[in-house]
Design a protein that fits this description.
The protein is α+β, with helices and mostly antiparallel strands. It contains 2 helices and 8 strands, in the order H-H-E-E-E-E-E-E-E-E.
């Protein structure tokens, strides 16, 4: 049930139309609506998540490189890291290893080790972050060192389980005369926080 005074006010407002609002009362309604929209838009998340702690998980990545470097391959991996929650800002680090290449061809397989630092923004159950670090890629015949950087987003399903997506760009630059091609890595990750 709508109270009588509110029902009368709404009826007058709806029947008034733009022509009868020369007294400026239409500005009051528009101002109230704008204030409501602004307050909803600026409100923080209902419950900020706690991202502090160690995490351990697995990933499946799609690695894209030059055709001479094997083209596009899949790379399962493992990661271990720690994040510290400073309120809205999250700082942390991670070590990661993945293996890509042909299943039966040892010449085509390679293993990559990464050490990464990351900084993120706490949006409640979601964490957006940027990462930078170092990578070492080893094959049966060679190894390359280089920089890795990228961005990601992590979603906390509950206190213990996170699902993430991450994009990394990895350069191979160890000072050798012949440079290994860069690689782009897109991964889906699941982590257990403890």
């Amino acid at each position: 049930m709508i109270p009588a005074i509110l029902r009368t006010t709404l009826k007058n407002r709806l029947s008034a139309g733009p022509a009868r609002r020369s007294d400026g009362s239409g500005h009051l309604w528009r101002g109230a609506a704008a204030g409501l929209v602004l307050s909803i838009g600026m409100a923080g998340p209902v419950g900020a998540g706690d991202w502090s702690g160690f995490f351990l998980g697995a990933s499946m990545a799609r690695v894209t490189g030059a055709a001479s470097d094997g083209g596009t391959t899949s790379a399962p991996g493992l990661h271990l890291g720690y994040d510290h929650d400073f309120g809205r800002v999250i700082l942390g680090g991670e070590v990661e290893v993945d293996r890509s290449g042909g299943a039966g061809d040892s010449q085509a397989e390679d293993q990559t080790h990464r050490i990464k630092l990351r900084a993120g923004y706490d949006m409640g159950e979601t964490l957006g972050y940027v990462t930078i670090g170092s990578a070492r890629r080893e094959t049966a015949t060679d190894s390359d060192n280089g920089a890795v950087y990228g961005l990601g987003v992590s979603y906390s399903l509950n206190r213990a389980l996170r699902l993430s997506g991450e994009y990394l760009h990895q350069d191979a630059n160890d000072g050798a005369a012949l440079q290994a091609p860069a690689r782009d890595i897109l991964s889906i990750r699941a982590s257990f926080q403890f």
